Amino acid sequence: MIIAPADPADYPALADLWYDSWMSIGIANDTDLDRDGVRARFFRETAHWALFAAKTGGEVAGLLALLPAEDRIDQIFVHPDRKGQGIGLALLAESKRQMPGRIVLTTHETNLRARSFYEREGFRLDWHEIDDVHRRVKYHYIWTPA
Predict the structure, then answer these.
(1) Predicted local distance difference test score (pLDDT) of residue 41
(2) Alpha-helical regions (H) of the chain
(3) Half-sphere CA count of 13, side-chain side, radius 13 A
(4) Separation between Cα atoms, residue 139 and residue 125, nearest integer Å
(5) How confident is the model over 16-48, as pLDDT tens digits?
(6) What is the C-alpha R_g of the chain?
(7) Per-residue pLDDT at 29
(8) What SS3 class is residue 80?
(9) Is residue 113's pLDDT more than 70?
């Protein structure tokens, strides 16, 4: 597996990975964007992100979108067919290399697999809030080195 700054040629595959992974979690509702909406958002957001791609066998397998000025993982997703293969752990390790002093991220209360993963990797729940627009509870996590 290789993790490197994303090549713009991979942006369409990364946008589709983002959508497919989100849909695979099973928490989508009618407030979420469709595939075309996610693609449009992805291309808008790339101007603000430090964007990394995980590739295995030359294929995009994961994405990591950082906002380093905020010490924030904005997006971290693994292709649904590649979950459980260490890609998320490698992406998280890359985020710790990029932002070694502190990392914050947000996920949803019902994204139990992600929450378990973050907590196992040393993130602690900092606070939560109700997201009225998307009708979900957001959990805000923080990581600092031991």
Answers:
(1) 92
(2) 11-25, 35-45, 87-98, 112-120
(3) 17
(4) 7
(5) 999 998 888 876 666 677 889 889 999 999 999
(6) 14
(7) 61
(8) helix
(9) yes
Residues β-bridged to residue 52: 5, 64
Assigned token pair, 144: 């600092």
Task: Write out the DSSP string of 30-65.
Answer: TTS--HHHHHHHHHHHTTT-EEEEEEETTEEEEEEE
pTM: predicted TM-score of the whole model, two decimal places = 0.91
Cα 72 to Cα 95: distance, rounded to the nearest angstrom:
9
> Which DSSP symbol is given to 6?
P
Instruction: Give the closest residue to 128 by CA, choosing from 113, 115, 117.
Output: 115
Taking the alpha carbons at both ends of the chain, their separation in whole angstroms is: 27
Q: All domains of the chain, ordered by start, with CATH? A: 2-143 (3.40.630.30)
How does DSSP classify residue 99? S
